[in-house]
Structure formats: structure tokens, C-alpha cells
Amino acid sequence: MPQIPEALRLAAAALLDRRETIDRPLAEQLVALPDDDLPQLIQLAHQVRLAWMGPAVEVESIISAKTGGCPEDCTFCSQSARYTTEVVRQPMMDTAQLVDLARRTREMGGTEFCIVVAVRGPDERMLRNVIEAAHAIRAEVDIEVAASLGLLKPGQAERLAAAGIHRYNHNLEAGPRFFPRICTTHSFEDRVQTCRMAVEAGMELCSGGIFGMGETWEDRLDLAFTLRELGAREIPCNFLDPRDGTPLGGAPLMRPLDALRCVAVYRCVIPDSVLRYAGGREVVLRDLQAYGMLAGANGLIVGNYLTTLGRSAEVDLAMLADLGMPVAGAPLTGTRGMRSIPLQPVTPA
Ligand code: SF4
């Protein structure tokens, strides 16, 4: 049997025995483990996920209801009007289109439908369109509705919550120290404010980040602990898939083992939230994608992302079936059992 590093023993004792969260110094020790110990960190993260969240995987589809032309300058984003990219601007979809897409998401096994628009924040017309679509989807399709409309003004979150939008997505993208390097048209604090408004209005908060933009592990932990403090119930983990024409278009891809370490460390820092495997995983992780689901992720965005193509939903659902992981709220035809993957326990000290 391999020796279990002290940091893993301490983390297992806190997270599995005492059911306590870990502190920043211990998270830093997990980050510092050598690659040779990564399989044991992944194993611990999977156990934490099972113990705190159970075996089911939340499957979600996101729809870009309005694409491109955003006035903000986020350096990773091909939807910014400031950069010349391959993104083709598309106006806001109408309610009938959104209802149809929500129905197709449900038929595919999805349990949540997230309406995403590329704007700094919604004006009155857009807010009304989204509210109308949310009412129509909830009346016609058995699916949860979420929204991602950018920065909110006072009062807007309450109106979205009243329309039955149960979850608001607003990614912080990066930690507070690194954020000014990826965006200058709004601040990290602006994003935090919107997250707080969503929570205060009674919506669940979905907020995560993009890894591989040049940030340090310290920045990644800053983001993780901020998300934990904000009470994010769902945390999308995106990996930079550099887009031509954006300032980060020539950035190197993140190392796959670092991407897995990110997922595992985030699971250990935030044991009780849905950790959603999101954009860039196909490009960054390649053959290692399934390991992310064994490293603590318990959510999956299937189909295409907002500006990049994912692999087909069928391939991802087959991956979950092969892993023996049930889909939350929608057991899949052909899923081989509802068991979780049995792994060797990490024994606490
Ligand atoms: S990340 Fe959002 S706010 Fe930033 S440019 Fe893209 S669409 Fe606009």
C-alpha cells in the first residue's frame, strides 16, 4: 500500500470523519502535493463527493439566448464586441425557441435549463423577455430554469426569483487579485455584489471560474474560498480553451493533471456544492475527462458551451453510464446500475 501523505490524512479526518470543511493552510498543502500523490488526492475527493453529495450527477444544458456584442472586455471571451472573433452575433431568442430548447434538454435527460445572454447586465426589455420565457418553460416542461444575465441592478434579482428562476449563474471567473488582469470594464466586487443579490433574493447561486488563464494556485484558492464564503451551491469549473482574436487567444493549454488537481482541491474546499465540469474539458483533459468525474465533480454541462463546441451529449451520458454514475432526477436508459465507483478508502490518522 502506498504511504498516505499527512495532508491527505488531515483532510480525510476533517471532511470524512468530522464532516468539517478544511482551512486555507490545509488546502495549500493539498495543492502542494507532488503529481505522484495525485491519484490519492483524487480518491479522497471522490469519497468526499460521495459522502457529502451522493452518487448522482446533475446534467445541465446551457443555451446562449443572445450571443456576442458584449461591451465588456473580458480577455478570455469571444463574445466581447472589442475583439474580432469567429462569434456571430445573434439577437435574443424568442420564448417559443427557448421552450423548444428546454423540452429537448429534458428529453436528453437534462434536469436544468440555463438561459445565458452575453451582456453587461439586462435592460428592462431583456429582463421581461427572460421572465416571460421562464414562465412559459415552467408551464410546459418539467425542468428547472436558471439564468445568467450578467450584472444585476437592485430589484432585478427579486423579479427573476419571482418568475421561478431557481438559480442564478454569475461566474467570478478568477480570484480578486487576478481579476483586474482579465477584465477592466467591471470589478471583482461588482461580480460579488451580483452574487450576493441573487442569494438575498432567494435564488441559488451558481458561480465558478475559468482555470488556465495565467493565474497562480494562490489565485485559484482565493476564488475557491470566496465561492465558499458566498455560499455558491453550484460551481462551474471551466478550463481555458483559447479563442482566436481574444487577448488570451495564444495562451498555452493548462496541464491536464493541473486541471484534475483543480477539481479535486475544489471538492475538498467546498464539499457540499455541485461541482460542475464545464467548458474546455474536451480540449484540456482529452483522454482524462472521465477522471474529473472521479475527482469530485458531480455535475456536467452537456452539448455545446456558449462559444465552443463540446462533444455530443450521448458520449457524455455514456461516460456517466460507464462510470456507474446515475443522472440526478432522470435515470438513463442503459445506465448500468446506480452504484458509485468503489475506491480504496483514505484512512484518516
Ligand atoms: S464574459 Fe460575459 S461580461 Fe465578459 S465579455 Fe464575455 S459576455 Fe461580456
Structure write-up:
There is one protein chain. This protein has 349 residues and is of the alpha/beta class. Helix content is 39%, strand content 12%. The protein contains twelve helices and nine strands. Strands 5-4-3-2-1-9-8-7-6 form a nine-stranded parallel sheet, covered by helices on one side. Strand 1, helix 4 and strand 2 form a beta-alpha-beta unit. The longest helix has 17 residues. The radius of gyration is 19 Å and the shape is globular. The two termini are 15 Å apart. The structure holds iron/sulfur cluster. The site of iron/sulfur cluster has 9 residues, from loops.
Task: Give the end-to-end Cα distance, rounded to a whole number of Å.
Answer: 15 Å
Strand content: 5-15%
Largest sheet: 9 strands, parallel
Write down how many β-strands occur, each being a DSSP E stretch of 2 or more residues: 9
The number of helical segments is 12
Please state how the strands of the largest beta sheet are arranged side by side: 5-4-3-2-1-9-8-7-6
Order of secondary-structure elements: HHHEHEHEHEHEEHEHEHHEH
pLDDT < 50 stretches = 331-349
The dominant shape is globular
Q: Helical residue percent?
A: 25-40%
Rounded mean pLDDT is 89
Q: Decide which structural class fits the backbone.
A: alpha/beta
Radius of gyration: 19 Å
Q: List the bound ligands.
A: iron/sulfur cluster
